[in-house]
Structure formats: C-alpha cells, structure tokens
Design brief:
The chain is of the alpha/beta class. It is built from 4 helices and 3 strands. The protein has a 3-stranded parallel beta sheet with strand order 1-2-3, sandwiched between helices. Helix 3 links the parallel strand 2 and strand 3. Helix 1 runs parallel beside helix 2. The chain starts with 12 loop residues before the first helix and ends with a helix.
C-alpha cells in the first residue's frame, strides 16, 4: 500500500477465493507463496482467474526456483520471487510482473 497499490490481504486461500469472487473491480496481481494450507499457490491462482481472467501471479518461496520447477510444483517461466527478499526487490518484481 505504501507503494501505491490497493492490497486485498488474507491469511488463507479459501478467503482469497471468496474475496476475489466478491470484488467488483479487476484484480491485476496475486502475490502468493507456492506452499499454502488448504491448496497450493498454483491452484489458488487458477481459482482466482475464474473471477479475474487477466490476473497475473507472482509466486514466492523459500525453496529455490529450480527446485520448484524441476519437481513440477510450478511450470517453467512463471514470475518468481526467492525468499528472503527486501521491499525494494518485491516492489520491483511486482511492477515487472504487472507490466510483463
């Protein structure tokens, strides 16, 4: 929010799906961890796209990107942010994902 974005925050994937379904304006970006309770980040992104088809996703994880991709958790070429990261790194990657 301090960087000028409107943030719809939640603590679990099911609430995110509910919020997205009820949100009347387009949601441009999902920033999510790869590993979540209840469903993984990829499934969450797909569920939110049912309500917001133009949604872009930035995944983050403490696991390296190559491990996530080689184990089939995420497809190659997704937007990915390695934990830990700084606010500057996150802001830059958010902008890159939205613009890309």
């Amino acid at each position: 929010e301090r960087r000028g974005y409107t943030v719809l925050g939640t603590t679990n994937p099911n609430d995110a799906v509910r919020i997205a379904a009820e949100h009347p304006q387009p949601i441009r970006l999902l920033l999510t961890d790869v590993v979540l309770p209840e469903m993984n980040g990829l499934d969450l992104a797909n569920a939110l796209r049912a309500h917001h088809p133009a949604l872009k996703t930035l995944f983050m994880s403490g696991y390296p990107a190559d491990v996530i991709v080689t184990r089939g958790v995420l497809p190659e070429g997704v937007h990915f942010l390695q934990k830990p990261f700084s606010m500057v790194e996150m802001t830059s990657k958010v902008r890159e994902t939205i613009d890309g």
